[in-house]
Amino acid sequence: MDIQMASFHCADDFSRQYILTKLSICQFALPLLVPNPCNCQIEFPLWSLRQIRRSWRERDCKEAKEKAEALMTVLRETEIHQVKKNLLPLQGKLWQRWCEKDRELYHLREKGNRSIEQHKSETETEKQMIRQEQLKKAFPLNALMRSVLEILQNHSETHTKLYFLQWLKVALDNLTAGHLENLNEKKKALVQKEKQEATKSSSVKDWQKRIEAVSREINDCTLGIEHILRETGQIYEALEEDSSMENTLFLSLPHIAADLMISGVPIELMDGDVSYVPLRWVAAVFDKLSEKLGDKRLFVLSVLGLQSSGKSTLLNALFGLQFTVSAGRCTRGAYMQLLKVEETFTAELGFDFVLVVDTEGLRAPELSNKSQNHDNELATFVIGLGNLTLINIMGENPSEMQDILQIVVQAFLRMKQVKISPSCLFVHQNVGEVTAKEETMDGRSRLEERLDKMAALAAEEEQCSDVTCFRDVIKFDVNTHVYYFAHLWDGNPPMAPPNPRYSHNVQELKSRILVAAQQESRGSIMKISDVRLRVQDLWRALLTENFIFSFRNTEEAMAMSKLETKYNYWTWELRSLVRSLQDELIIQIQNGKIQTLVTHTLEDPVREKYEGIKQELEKCFNDDPDIQKLIQWKGNFENKLNYLKEALITESARKAEELINFKKNQEKVDKKKSDYEKELLEKSQNLALSLNGTELSEEELHEKFNLLWEKWVYDVSSSLPPVTDPEIEVDSENILLDYFKKEKDMVNILKNYSGEKFEIDYDKHVKMKRNYWGLSTMKIEPQDKHSINMTTDCIISKVNEIVNKISQQKHDYNPTYFHEILIIIDEEVKSAPTQKRYTFTRRYEIDLSLCLFRRASVKFKEMHKAFKRANDPVNYLQSKKDDFFMSFKISCQGATSIKTFVDFLWNKLTPAVSSTIRKNMALKIAGDIRTTCRAFNENRANLEKHILISLAEEENFDNYWQYLHHPESFFKNYIEKHVKTYFSDRGSKKIKTFLQMSLDDIKNAILSAIQESTEKAKGKSSTVSGWLDLFCDDLGSTLIFPRKDLISIEHQEIKDIKFLKEAMSKALDPEMKKAEQKCLFRLVEEVIPEIQTMLSEHLCGCWKQCPFCKAICTNTIPTHEGDHSVPFHRPEALSGCSWYQTDNFSIDYCTSSVASDCIFILDDGRRIPFKTYREAGGEYATWSITPDTSTQPYWKWFVCHFRSKLEEKYYKKFINKGEIPDAWKKITKQDVLDDLKTK
């Protein structure tokens, strides 16, 4: 008693009320007069006793009581069974009709001349009309709702609101208690009579109708706080669909519910009367909860059990909650109540609040006609929502156990299949005094057997081959996850006292719950925002026929987007490093510093960077609660990063090896060039010696040198064997003859071809197909011609790109280059968007190949000439004439030759500086564009979004057409356009900054090389050769500046090495200025293609398109594992899809079709249900298309805006089943832009 009174003194009014209510239930004496130990005054806790004797009148909380009484005056003016209809009108038939229509959206059907999208649009319109009816009934607010909302909205004191709600609850119970008692007795009598008349089948239906009528009346007369809050939610949902979003009432309603929830008031999660979740209302409440508390971590505890099995009592006993436990007032639907965790325990437990979800009983008699589906929905919903679910079993009735276990196992199996991992505890109540260990062991064993059997059966039904027992479904230990509870009462109530053993059982269970909560992986503890998304995902999936197929984890998708943005940054870091290393390697190879590639010089820094990125990835999964949800994808991202790292290393090593091999293959030629160079150099020096002591002008020096130059070159090269040029035209003809060898008249075609430009001859190049009935051949239409021209332009563009790329390699011509052109033509012809109306003839490929071969031949000839100029000894010597003259001039000038020497050296350095600056700037600018351009700084889906915005702003159909049918080339053009914009506009200042940075870096490198080489060369050889060795070695990793290019001046005598240093340093600034001007002159022309290539390689990813609607897979790896997927699909009309044997477009979305009973027909005549689209094989089997009713408005606007263009292009009509719904026509361009920009 002392402990009881101590607790009583420390408690507030609500806690006292709770204590006294429990004491009353247990038949204990109640303290009517309580002496206050602090001031010796006597208290009479009447308010706290109000639920014990409701006839007592209260003195405290007078204002709250008066307001509650005022409301009751309003209610008493209406008959009880009419209260809901008149004062809570939004939650009745209108809400029920809206729910039915909303559910219909997930079960769309093609019917008669109505398509799925038309059905969907009609249903959406009907839903909006119902909401309008609700608004008419809601406003102006009736006296009840106006008063309640004013009180809850205007009173800042939480206690006042809670007092008011408690008084109102008491008053409502008083108002309805007697009436409900009579109705329940009436129903009980009817049920008894129905059982007695069960043998007479004709009268059973009559009795059932009477029982249902009484049940409806009971429902109409049941009135509580929950119904008023439900009406509040319906007012909010109706207002939200109205355009007037500024309504202050609209904004305040979720605040009210969130405040109540924080105060510990249970809030309805699922409406039990219609078995539906008001998603918008629940989402808004969670949003406001997050706003008020911060996005705190929640441990979600839910409970499942048969009706009247003591679920609510158990939760109340565990946590001191206030879920309804009154006799005759079973929980309907699902309610959630928030419990705050003491701050001292949050770090230890890993969460800030417990969200307890109480549910209505399974197998409820009043839901017998729809009980099984409803129970499965409810179980799946709360198990999917909860981190831990208490499975409450009352008594030892085998059939009742069978019922609940079957439902529970099915729900847990569903969670496993959608990669949600909840846990559970079984609470077996009312099994008598469980004392014998053997008895509990037998009970556990029997339970496990039942669970295993049901898991196997459920797995067989769901075709889940990896499940043979319950432990395969979830982590389950029969010894620690099953609890046996004694009876709540020690005897028969109402006179029986509570059983102390029940309290011990509750405490043991509570301890286990906390242990389980603490062991929960951090990734599975949700934040408030996550719970909001989980509720939406679970409910939307439950509304469809196939939960597994339809479940979309939005929470995971958002986390994935966040992780992909980080991945985008990490991959750019890797690419940038490898690019820098590759450039450095190429410089060293060109300078002759590397003759054999030692792979660790490339691998070590890349692996070091990779390990750093792996640590960042690990840190993300450890520290970021959002990304922790993707723990199952961690290995996948590690593999993707490793794949990229290895691919980059391999590609860079290949390029380096290729260059080394190329230089090795050139060694013979280089040796000849070097020998001839030495011979000419000797002749030049001899000439200079013969003129020793003679002062000659620049003009006279040129005259003397030129007189002998041609003779020297002839003498040196006369021993060379004749050079045979490749017969490029002959090669091209032979390759074409071999490739098209099956064509009869190929020789004459080659002989007679003379065209420089490819012109399409539709009769010769295109073969039209037969119509649907096969009776006649289709005629070529303008849209066919446009499509053919676009395909041709795309092929020509790709071939030009590859030919230019080959030319830039500065290698010699190779016949295999022609084969690369043939591969491009073949691939593009096979993948052309012909809409099954035509095919390209073999003659098309021949004529196009001829034209492109002819153009490529010109390029290949130029390439060969350039290679010959660079590598043919005679050409090489001719190109070195100026160098030899400079060497001759220096030899003639003697001691005054340092200036000429310095001029010669800078003449070689300046082009190398310009070239290096361009390369450095390309990487810097590409990195800055990727960082500052919003289209490029996240993931592939983000790039796609910005492309769609750009297309809508331009409203150019031809651009759309290229995007739909040639997405890869469109993406590259889009990137190139952004790069050009950067150069012409916002990036101009940064370009100058990057240029200055690069100039400063190179300037410092050259200055350092001058100083270092001079310092080391002091007192050594009198020729400049040693100094040049040191100077080139210092610059060997910075510039392409081969030492061998300086042979012509290496013999010069330099007596004053200090003067050489000063002369080189003095020339540094003016020469760098020259390099800057030279770099800027061709910067845009040379750098833009390089930047475009870097960004394209970084952002490209997968280019596969949905076989139904042409949506592009958003995976960032071209050859990724697993299915192709895309966040949003499109109307099938965008790919030219039409209804079978008609010219009517199909406007359906494939995400709607896969949830319907529709079929699609393949070219081979096979009919495949959309629900099992993967059975079509091929590309269909590689796509994951999830049912989804939330489509973007973007493509609906596009279809309306470009309707006539689409009809022209595809030669089909938006009529009959393809008729565009009126709702689509109301979508504006601004609507779609706003929608994209908010995502």
What are the SSEs and their pairings?
Layout: H1 2-10, H2 13-25, E1 34-35, E2 42-43, H3 62-76, H4 80-87, H5 93-104, H6 116-138, H7 143-154, H8 158-196, H9 201-221, H10 225-240, H11 248-262, E3 267-270, H12 279-293, E4 297-305, H13 311-319, E5 334-340, H14 343-349, E6 353-359, H15 371-385, E7 388-394, H16 398-417, E8 423-429, H17 437-462, E9 482-484, H18 500-519, E10 526-527, H19 528-543, H20 547-550, H21 554-590, H22 600-623, H23 625-628, H24 634-665, H25 667-690, H26 698-717, H27 728-739, H28 746-752, H29 762-765, E11 766-768, H30 782-808, H31 816-830, E12 838-840, H32 842-871, H33 873-879, H34 881-893, H35 898-932, H36 940-954, H37 957-965, H38 967-984, H39 988-1017, H40 1025-1035, H41 1057-1081, H42 1083-1099, H43 1150-1153, E13 1159-1161, E14 1167-1169, H44 1194-1201, H45 1203-1210, H46 1222-1225, H47 1229-1237
Parallel strand pairs: 4-6, 4-7, 7-8, 8-9
Antiparallel strand pairs: 1-2, 3-5, 4-10, 5-6, 11-12, 13-14
Helix pairs in contact: 3-7, 3-8, 4-9, 5-6, 6-10, 8-9, 10-11, 11-12, 12-19, 13-18, 15-16, 15-19, 16-17, 21-22, 21-24, 21-35, 22-24, 25-26, 25-33, 25-34, 26-34, 27-32, 30-31, 30-32, 31-32, 32-33, 34-35, 35-39, 35-41, 35-42, 36-47, 37-38, 38-42, 39-40, 39-41
Radius of gyration: 42 Å
Helix content: 55-70%
The global form is elongated
Query: What is the β-strand count?
Result: 14
Would you tell me the structural class of the helices and strands? Answer: mainly alpha
The fraction of residues in strands falls at: 5-15%
Question: What is the average of the pLDDT values?
Answer: 84
Terminal-residue CA separation: 61 Å
Number of helices, where a helix is a run of at least 4 consecutive DSSP H or I residues: 47
The low-confidence parts are: 53-57
Largest sheet: 8 strands, mixed
